[in-house]
Each structure stands twice: as structure tokens, then as C-alpha cells.
Design goal:
The protein is mainly α. 54% of the residues lie in helices and 0% in strands. The structure holds iron/sulfur cluster (2 copies).
Length: 188
């Protein structure tokens, strides 16, 4: 006789961890697929959002951590606002990203470097500076990879795609805003 999945013995700790205080809502997913159908990045994901939430409910943490789905999520909130169960899906995927970063997984290191470089430039200048952002990202994620851009840099510059702007130091223009967000998120 085939094994039957016993739902009462499943490990719910992952759902509790990624949706603190609301994890029982996560279990109310009816697998309707509205989240996958609404997701602008679903075509490129290896695990669809609908399947991802099911995996969270089943406690398949290793499979989730090695999927590229969370790194393709642009946090657009489409899945969350359209979910008929009102499940906080976008916050869940953010928490999954944090878990992957805490574990230092290879894929998460490049993504973490991307986010940190982007946030640094926005906080410091109040706007994007493409050249500095790219240099910070490449040097913090794959310093040797910078060699591959030696030819590309001058071409982008000559075509007006990036501006040469010297870095500045001191207080950031958006320091107060970033500090306030950190306070609201309980990180300060
Ligand atoms: S939209 Fe909500 S209920 Fe439907 S599959 Fe996605 S998470 Fe589950
Ligand atoms: S928040 Fe992420 S998972 Fe949800 S629809 Fe947008 S890109 Fe897809």
C-alpha cells in the first residue's frame, strides 16, 4: 500500500518562522494558483510561488533555500494583494531571503551584495549613481569579475550610459529616512 501523507506529523516550524504570528493563515492556502498567475517573474522561477508556499507548509527548508525563486521576486506585492486567503506572501518571501542570507548560501551572497550596494548608494546620495553602484557590487561579490568589465566600462562611458562621478564621503542624504525605517522594523 502506498504511503499516505500524515498532515498531523508535518514540521510546521518553517511556516511559524517565516510568518510569525500569522502562520496559521499560511496553512489556509487552497493552492488556487492566483499567486503564480499574478507573478510577473513566475516564468523565470524554478519553483512557482504557489508551489513555494506549499513547500513552506510542508517544512521543506533545504529545497526552498536552494531554489532561485526568492531571488527573482521583485517584491511587487501582486501575489499578496490577490491571494483570496489574505496570506502575507511578500513578507514571507522577504523572510526566506533573510534566512538564506543568515545561512550564507552562495546564491544569497551575490544578492546580498547587490542589495547592500544599492542601498548604500541610495542612502548616501539620495539617487542612483550607476558607476559607483556597479563597482561596489562587483568588488563585494566577485572582485576578480571586475577584470571582465575593464573593456565594457569605457564603452558605456563613451556612449553616455554611465557618468564618471567621484565618490563623496560623510553623512548620507537619506540617513534619517533609513534610520527611521530601521526603527520601525525593530532593527535599532
Ligand atoms: S493565491 Fe493564496 S490561496 Fe491561492 S495558491 Fe497562492 S497562496 Fe495559496
Ligand atoms: S511579490 Fe514576488 S512572488 Fe509575489 S508576485 Fe511579486 S514578484 Fe511574484
Amino acid at each position: 500500500m502506498a504511503d499516505v501523507l500524515d498532515l498531523t506529523t508535518l514540521d510546521r516550524s518553517l511556516a511559524q518562522q517565516v510568518t510569525p504570528g500569522r502562520w496559521e493563515e499560511m496553512l489556509s492556502c487552497i493552492q488556487c494558483g492566483t499567486c503564480s498567475a499574478s507573478c510577473p517573474a513566475a516564468h523565470a522561477m524554478d519553483v512557482s510561488p504557489r508551489r513555494m508556499w506549499r513547500m513552506v507548509n510542508l517544512g521543506l527548508v533545504d529545497e526552498i533555500m536552494h531554489s532561485k525563486t526568492m531571488w527573482l521576486c521583485s517584491l511587487c506585492y501582486q501575489c499578496q494583494v490577490r491571494c483570496p486567503r489574505g496570506i502575507p506572501l511578500t513578507e514571507t518571501i522577504t523572510r526566506l531571503k533573510e534566512m538564506a542570507m543568515e545561512r550564507g548560501l552562495v546564491r544569497s551572497r551575490a544578492s546580498a551584495a547587490f542589495y547592500r550596494s544599492f542601498a548604500y548608494v541610495m542612502r548616501h546620495y539620495g539617487r542612483m549613481r550607476e558607476m559607483e553602484f556597479m563597482m561596489r557590487f562587483i568588488l563585494s561579490s566577485n572582485p576578480l569579475g571586475a577584470l571582465g568589465y575593464i573593456k565594457l566600462g569605457p564603452i558605456l562611458f563613451l556612449r553616455g550610459k554611465v557618468k564618471l562621478e567621484l565618490p563623496t564621503f560623510g553623512k548620507g542624504r537619506l540617513d534619517r529616512l533609513f534610520e527611521r525605517v530601521a526603527e520601525l522594523e525593530g532593527r535599532k
